[in-house]
């Protein structure tokens, strides 16, 4: 028996001339922006002649009937353990990773990774499907990540990352109050035999690294900073905060004195992505994780009176 509530039609539109589905829906103003229309497709709310369509470049013909369906809560994608899917189309996945979850396998941990979870997810729809790694986040860092769905796109991203990802920003809570509040850190990074990144303020043959920071808020012995990176080096933000004497909370590898929230207080919260197929600019934001929010919102006395509890994003 069909669930009529689940299949409720919000709007029906007849096609008068050939067009691609996304362009048609934008032209008909079924939502206020292209991103909002793509969300309809991603959430399986568009039917053409009664058939569910998620492909944004689906070719419409004259006399086709396009239906906009009510969002089906029962069809909502479940949050995978340790991550949630922010965006998905035929080419890409954008996800938000929790702290404590590996991006890809290591010698010590091969099964519980974002990569493996996403491969299991896409194979439920197509046994031949898989995802391809474009970049990584450290285990104890949370935030946004992009995965491709074919090797061609993986290669395109690897060769054109700066053009396709014009902005990939972080936020962090650091120890103390940076002075000046806003600034730029430039240094040259090398990796020692223990896989720790070392910073030099003079050119020592390492990789030049540039981090811009801006203080958003200070309270007690902590400050919330936003970062824009000119370069993408391993552990760059973490090393640069240690360099200026304000290590990231919880980052004992790079100088932190304590770890009150049982994670590194670093979060990849902003992403602007130029879609490699359509050229469309997509913007994603992942708000500050609750544990970090509590840390910067309470005084040290309040934190002693109320023990911290790590929360899911």
TrEMBL record:
GO terms for biological process: enzyme-directed rRNA pseudouridine synthesis. GO terms for molecular function: RNA binding; rRNA pseudouridine synthase activity. Keywords: Isomerase, RNA-binding. Pfam families: PseudoU_synth_2 (PF00849). It comes from the Bacteria. The keyword Isomerase applies. InterPro entries: PsdUridine_synth_cat_dom_sf (IPR020103), PsdUridine_synth_RluA-like_CS (IPR006224), PsdUridine_synth_RsuA/RluA (IPR006145), RluA_PseudoU_synthase (IPR050188), S4_RNA-bd (IPR002942), S4_RNA-bd_sf (IPR036986). CDD domains: PseudoU_synth_RluA_like (cd02869), S4 (cd00165). Residues 20-86 form the RNA-binding S4 domain. PANTHER family: MITOCHONDRIAL RNA PSEUDOURIDINE SYNTHASE, RIBOSOMAL LARGE SUBUNIT PSEUDOURIDINE SYNTHASE D. Belongs to the pseudouridine synthase RluA family. This is RluA family pseudouridine synthase.
């Amino acid at each position: 028996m069909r669930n009529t509530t689940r299949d409720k039609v919000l709007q029906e539109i007849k096609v008068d001339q050939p067009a691609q589905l996304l362009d048609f829906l934008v032209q008909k103003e079924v939502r206020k922006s292209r991103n909002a229309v793509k969300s309809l497709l991603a959430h399986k709310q568009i039917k053409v002649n009664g058939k569910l369509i998620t492909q944004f470049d689906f070719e419409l013909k004259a006399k086709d009937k396009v239906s906009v369906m009510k969002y089906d809560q029962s069809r909502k994608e479940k949050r995978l353990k340790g991550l949630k899917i922010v965006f998905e189309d035929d080419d890409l996945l954008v996800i938000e990773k929790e702290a404590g979850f590996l991006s890809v396998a290591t010698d010590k941990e091969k099964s519980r990774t974002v990569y493996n979870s996403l491969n299991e997810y896409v194979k439920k729809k197509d046994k031949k499907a898989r995802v391809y790694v474009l970049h990584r986040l450290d285990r104890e860092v949370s935030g946004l990540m992009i995965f491709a769905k074919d090797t061609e796109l993986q290669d395109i991203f690897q060769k054109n990352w700066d053009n396709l990802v014009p902005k990939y920003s972080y936020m962090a809570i650091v120890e103390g109050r940076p002075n000046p509040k806003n600034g730029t850190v430039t240094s040259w990074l090398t990796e020692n035999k223990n896989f720790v990144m070392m910073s030099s303020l003079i050119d020592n043959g390492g990789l030049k690294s540039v981090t811009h920071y801006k203080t958003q808020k200070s309270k007690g012995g902590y400050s919330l900073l936003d970062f824009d990176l000119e370069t993408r080096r391993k552990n760059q933000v973490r090393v640069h905060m240690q360099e200026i004497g304000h290590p990231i909370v919880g980052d004992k590898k790079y100088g932190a004195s304590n770890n009150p929230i049982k994670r590194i207080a670093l979060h990849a919260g902003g992403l602007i992505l130029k879609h490699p197929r359509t050229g469309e600019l997509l913007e994603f934001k992942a708000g500050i994780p609750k544990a970090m929010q509590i840390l910067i919102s309470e005084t040290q006395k309040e934190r002693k009176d109320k023990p911290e509890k790590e929360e899911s994003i």
